[in-house]
Amino acid sequence: GSAAQTAIECNTNCLVENGRLRHHPLSNQEENQRLLAHELSVKGRFDNIVPVLKRIAGLQHEVDFSDRAQQIAREQLGFELPAQILADAWIADLDMRALYGECVMQTVSLMAAQAELNNPHRGTDEAVAFFLDSGYHAVDISPCSDGRLKGLVRYILRLPDGAVRSRKAYAGAMFDVDANVKRWIETELMRFREGRPVTADAGTRYLKVVVYHWSSSDPTHEGCAAHCSNVTKAAEAGLKRLGEFRQAIENSFCCGASVDTLLIGVDTDTDAIKVHIPDAKGEMSLHRFIDNMELYQSSANDDPSAARLKIYRAIQAASAVGGWGSGEGEPHEGMRRLIATLLINNLSQIDYVCSYRGGRYADIGHAERFISVGDGFEEFQLRNLAYFAHLYTVEEGATDMDVGISIFGKLNIKHGLPAPVAIHYRYDSRVPGCRERTVERCRRVKMAIESRYTSLSQKGLLVCGMTVQDKRPGSPIERVDAETP
Amino acid sequence: GSAAQTAIECNTNCLVENGRLRHHPLSNQEENQRLLAHELSVKGRFDNIVPVLKRIAGLQHEVDFSDRAQQIAREQLGFELPAQILADAWIADLDMRALYGECVMQTVSLMAAQAELNNPHRGTDEAVAFFLDSGYHAVDISPCSDGRLKGLVRYILRLPDGAVRSRKAYAGAMFDVDANVKRWIETELMRFREGRPVTADAGTRYLKVVVYHWSSSDPTHEGCAAHCSNVTKAAEAGLKRLGEFRQAIENSFCCGASVDTLLIGVDTDTDAIKVHIPDAKGEMSLHRFIDNMELYQSSANDDPSAARLKIYRAIQAASAVGGWGSGEGEPHEGMRRLIATLLINNLSQIDYVCSYRGGRYADIGHAERFISVGDGFEEFQLRNLAYFAHLYTVEEGATDMDVGISIFGKLNIKHGLPAPVAIHYRYDSRVPGCRERTVERCRRVKMAIESRYTSLSQKGLLVCGMTVQDKRPGSPIERVDAETP
Ligand SMILES: [Zn+2]
Ligand SMILES: [Zn+2]
Ligand SMILES: [Zn+2]
Ligand SMILES: [Zn+2]
I need a surface site. Which of A12, A158, A321, A386 has the fewest CB within 10 A? Predict the structure, then answer.
């Protein structure tokens, strides 16, 4: 493997030789550098807001304040501040809470727009072909909504943007079986009616993946909050929900309707994954899995082809395990190929955390920059960037919302900064009136949030921004005004 | 036509000969008598509650009060009263509000169970065959949620129970296009994947019907509240929404995907319908329609086959109309057959209103017995029996709910009686966990209603009952307890 330029203080996970960091033979260094640049640029933008606003605050009693503030904002943040807030500064002091909220919203939109420019391949044939190679016409992933899993698709699993049909996150990865059955139905109709992405007789499958998580450094405190940081509970619950989904499809549709399922765990401290290997019948066990951190270590000194072989052998070995974890044979060939690909992809991410984070994230806990409500921004999914509440009404999603507000109680509110809430929903421009209804939903959800947290809202400690976006890949993000026009 | 036994005071709509009521040659008198018995029995049960409770209230200070009250309730209402409420009567006075609420909920369940026993044909091949005869594999009707349209399917249109795929009601008949597209997708998948009810190559169609309404006696006050009692607005809005649905299907799916649409109006004073005749391209106009009250009058003296012929000629004549209402030819044969069937069926209902209601309902305004929240009870759909709020969350359905509470402000609350709210949702027993999630939804909606109308709720002027029911035809109604177990 190649050696990093400088010696870093590393933990025992990392591959160190003569005090220097080594890379795993299968890790993709170019991609790692690209992803690092992206992460630093996006997070830097958000982390820059407070210092810039401090500087601006210091100027508020000068005569040419508005002009100077705007110049600083343009140069340092990339956008202008609301003129009215600056103009009103002479009356009371500058409304820093409103200004901060506005800056977060503007940065979200700016970053989403930039990410879109940098990722022109979303939704292309290339992305679809990725899973078709393993025999899957659709892959649907439900991770936990924890902010530390936000980099799942692009960083941890290194999947091409647009390859995953749905990646809706739920507290504790407890996805909505009924909604998922509906999504399955839509996918099936496309295949049967229009032969998209392949015809129904091609023999491809639908794959549903659940991703749970734990913290290897502080397992009893920094694991999944929805499962009380109990990793066994989290994995068991995921396995059960997957079984329910599969059973729902098998019970509701005849002619051998079924789906493949896969359970994956993530150590949020190192981003290493654990893959639970299905047997020949598609059944999984909590006791039959591959720990990718072990594979990372054990294949570190191999050449690339030997390392690759070791991965396929690990799948065979896991399938042959006895006792609690014993199953009925190996998974089918497409599933084996898919698991191998995921494991290899994740080796690059383990290397990424070693190269740039000393093998273990410093922010093992929460450090989100905003609360993302609704459909979320597919454009930039980064670890600890956002707390995600995938809700259509606050009435149903109150629990998720309360958790988010309590996280921001510690991160922002106790320092006097508001919790920034980015309400974002996607619409289908092919359906008449859908955009108008989606805009209405934004406003209704905003009202419901403000009424649930009235006291915060009245003190300016809760700032909601609203945006909508067409579902077609590459569509711009459109800001929604608070007032009904 | 046959003559009724006694002379009735009739309005000008009715067919009167020598001071006696005559029936239309095509009306089904046996069915009319069956439907009358059903209506009187169900409404009688509800209208009996107050007199029985008054009688019981008069006994509350007697020694054997509980026993005597229970005996009266069993004999007069068909069920027992909650023992605790009776037992507590000696402390304060009898809690009549709680008792009334409980009686309404018990009566709802009892009536639904009885209706189920009397209608064993729901969901059978017979029902499906009804529309397949006209070339439709699925028919989906969206009436306004107004209580006066609750008898639409079984009384006004005389359709067999189970023939209609969906009859979800919306304020102003403004159905949810997005939800309807999802229902269309499910129907299509069944056809393509499982050949149900017929295979995709059978050339059948999907029909979406919207039903608006007006009041011929008091058009500017007793029309559709959601459209400010403006019948032109109501019809226009229905036509527009139908067009949007059709366009959504055509835009979102290729290979010539489309749907047939039909707009029907109902005069809620007489139950006579107005059918807007589609042209050869499926387009409709507000100015091209058949008024069934006119047909009823003009064919009253014909023999049955001449009357039948007149109906088909009326469709031809409407299709040939010029000016504002001109279209491009006649509708296709299946649509013509369907329209003729609907018109003939409705002749029986016009006769029903003439025979038993003097040609015009006495309760042209609101006289609902309870508020039905959620999926509603398919088992008994009767005019003015329930105000319907088809909602999944109070956050989204607040407007509908407010209208219902305001109607019951006049009907019940100003007399000191509570507004009875029957929360009812259906679940799919084939989907694991669906029942539990549906029970949760009942409780969540109940909480949201009680918190929206806190002051009424605290005074006992709002009583919510909760029930769930499996989606399969013939499933029993299951009561849900208020407390989490
Ligand atoms: Zn390291
Ligand atoms: Zn979690
Ligand atoms: Zn009459
Ligand atoms: Zn109406």
Answer: A12
CA dihedral B381, B382, B387, B388 (to 10 degrees): 20
Cβ distance of B247 and A194 shorter than 8 Å: no
What tokens does A357 get?
């984070």
pLDDT at residue B419, rounded to an integer:
97
Contact by Cβ (8 Å): A244, B434: no
What are the tokens at B83?
Answer: 């023992």
Convert the pLDDT of each residue in B112-130 to its tens digit.
Answer: 888 766 665 555 677 788 8
- Provide ipTM, 2 decimals: 0.83
CB B436, CB B78: distance < 8 Å: no
Mean pLDDT in residue range B65-87: 94
Q: CA of A248 to nearest chain B CA: how many angstroms apart?
A: 4
| CB-CB neighbors (< 8 A) of A200 in chain B | 193
Tokens of B374: 């959620």
Among residues A95, A140, A146, A400, the one annotated as catalytic is A146
Which residues between 372 and 431 in chain B have a beta carbon less than 8 angstroms from any beta carbon of chain A?
393-396, 428, 430-431
- The set of catalytic residues of B is 146
B395 CB neighbours in chain A (<8 A) are 393-395, 444, 448
Tokens matching residue B215: 């009041």
DSSP letter for A425, please.
Answer: E
- Average pLDDT, integer, range A28-50: 93
Do B163 and B232 contact (CB within 8 A), yes or no? Answer: no
Please name which ligand lies nearest the alpha carbon of A145: 2
A252-265 tens-digit pLDDT? 998 788 999 999 99
Confidence class of residue B390 from pLDDT cuts 50, 70 and 90? confident
Sorted by sequence, the CB contacts under 8 Å of residue A221 that are 6+ apart come out as A215, A229
Return the closest-CA partner of residue A390 out of A67, A95, A141: A141
Which residues hold their Cβ within 5 A of ligand 4, which is an ion? B 144, 146, 224, 226
The CA angle A17-A22-A27, to the nearest 5 degrees, is 155
Q: Does residue A12 carry a pLDDT above 80?
A: no
- Based on the residue annotation, tell me whether A67 is a catalytic residue of this protein: no
CA B59 to chain centre: 38
Dump pLDDT digits (tens) for B178-237: 999 999 999 999 999 989 889 988 989 999 999 999 999 999 999 998 899 999 999 999
Element (H, E) at A142: strand A136-143
Structural contact between residues A119 and A381, judged by C-beta atoms closer than 8 angstroms = no
Residue recorded with tokens 């299951």: B478
Half-sphere exposure of B98 (CA within 13 A, CB side): 13
Amino acid letter for position B2: S
Judge if pTM exceeds 0.90: no
CB within 8 Å: B186 and A185: yes
